[in-house]
Write a structure and sequence with these properties.
heterodimer; A: 143 residues; mainly alpha; globular; B: 141 residues; 6 helices; 72% helix; 0% strand
Chain lengths: 143, 141
């Protein structure tokens, strides 16, 4: 059941990304390019995605996960340096080519070598991040 | 195209539905960078099968519906001098921040999470500045 639901969730996510046009790097970059020929699509995608999720969060208050166990607890509302710095780096990479982690995986079947190159670089980045995170945690900002 | 926003809304609802299934079914937050990152850095070892199956769905479903869609599905650059730095930045950035567009954006904003909202504002702003510098000013992308 757990694995079946994981496949369905991943499948809905992938189908939604493709149908909404979010695997198209041009639509992403044109949404970010507010001084160019602005493309509003991502606004509608975000709006559409937030509706079922908001309902789902509400339902978590009165029930347990279908497969049992507990809900994964979100992190404490703390705005640490890693959140800020990480988001800056992510936004820079996202803008440069118009890909983020979900869409690049959803593009695996048609994105060709360029997409695979991006995925491999992303995985390398993910593997080295714990080291970078440790460095940031142990080295406070100089006064 | 003029009806892109309708497809955007429909696709968005499907994305949110996927997140709802993952949350209410498996009790987990649907964040692409977390699901993948936990596989490669070892932090998600205990739930690796669930992660792999989720990614399988994410890869396979688009492949199945692709033949029914018209037009090109991507305009990805072929330039490795952009692809490699961008991939590294996305990998490092999303794992440092512990979330990307799905985790912080969709799942975070929908529960009015402070971290999700702040992270989303920052990476969108960074993306906007990237377009101003690299497209509007330098003309590289």
């Amino acid at each position: 059941m757990r694995l079946f639901l994981a496949f369905i969730a991943g499948g809905l996510f992938g189908a939604g990304l493709l149908i909404s046009g979010m695997t198209d790097t041009k639509k992403l970059q044109d949404w970010l390019d507010i001084f160019g020929d602005w493309d509003p699509t991502l606004t509608f995608v975000m709006g559409g995605a937030i509706i079922p999720m908001a309902v789902a969060w509400r339902l978590t208050k009165t029930r347990a996960p279908l497969v049992g166990g507990d809900f994964q607890t979100p992190q404490e509302p703390k705005l640490e340096r890693k959140l800020i710095l990480g988001s800056v780096l992510f936004g820079l990479g996202w803008g440069l080519v118009g890909l983020c982690p979900g869409p690049t995986l959803a593009s695996l079947s048609f994105g060709g070598w360029a997409n695979i190159t991006f995925i491999l670089a992303m995985l390398v980045g993910m593997i080295v991040t714990p080291k970078i995170g440790q460095y940031i945690d142990t080295n406070p900002v100089a006064e | 195209m003029e009806h892109d926003w309708i497809l955007g809304l429909i696709g968005g609802l499907l994305i949110g539905l996927g997140g709802a299934v993952y949350l209410l079914g498996n009790g987990r937050i649907m964040g692409a960078s977390g699901i993948v990152g936990g596989l490669v850095d070892g932090t998600g070892r205990s739930s690796w099968v669930e992660r792999v199956i989720f990614i399988a769905g994410l890869v396979v479903l688009p492949a199945l519906i692709l033949p029914f869609l018209s037009g090109s599905q991507t305009h990805l650059t072929q330039n490795p001098a952009l692809l490699i730095p961008a991939g590294l930045l996305v990998g490092i950035g999303t794992r440092l921040a512990n979330g990307c567009t799905s985790g912080h954006g969709v799942c975070g904003i929908s529960r009015l999470s402070l971290r999700g909202i702040v992270a989303t504002l920052i990476y969108v702003l960074a993306g906007v500045i990237t377009m101003i510098v690299f497209r509007q000013t330098l003309g590289w992308i």
